[in-house]
Amino acid sequence: MEDRTPAQVFALVIGSVLVIAGIIGFFYSSAFGSPGKVDGVFGILDVNGWHNVVHILSGVAGLALMGTASGARAYAIGLALVYTVVTIWGFSIGDGESILGFLPVNTEDNVLHALIALAGYAAYAVSAPRPTREPAARTT
Fold first, then answer.
1. Of 10, 14, 66, 70, most Cβ neighbours within 10 A?
2. pLDDT of the chain along its 140 residues, tens only?
């Protein structure tokens, strides 16, 4: 992991956590109704089948893009932007409501989404591409 950029570590860690969270979420609620049967993972985070699928897909994207510095950096900023929108949307509709009528969120979800967004912005910022050195011109 020495050669990985912070964005690659972010993509690996967050991607893995989101996939695992999505899988665990199905043990709590696998309903795909609108908004579906909502249960709290560990009694805290509201999920349903759709919410679990979104976590798995966004996690798989991170795992798929972590292989290159540029892919991981794109994932970090992309996830940060999406989670910023989801956070603002979630806080604006309120605790226990559903985004788009089928993705349940509560205050705890919104705080977690905000933290993931902040981490994504940070990973993106500290993984800025470094200028490459051009070889010195040879004189003969």
1. 10
2. 568 999 999 999 999 999 999 999 888 888 886 655 566 666 677 888 888 999 999 999 999 999 999 999 999 999 999 999 999 999 999 887 888 888 888 898 899 999 999 999 999 999 988 666 666 666 66
How far apart CA 35 and CA 16 sit, in angstroms, is: 26
Secondary structure of 40-70 in HEC code, one letter for each residue = EECCCEEECHHHHHHHHHHHHHHHHHCCCHH
What length does the chain have? 140
pTM for the complete prediction? 0.84
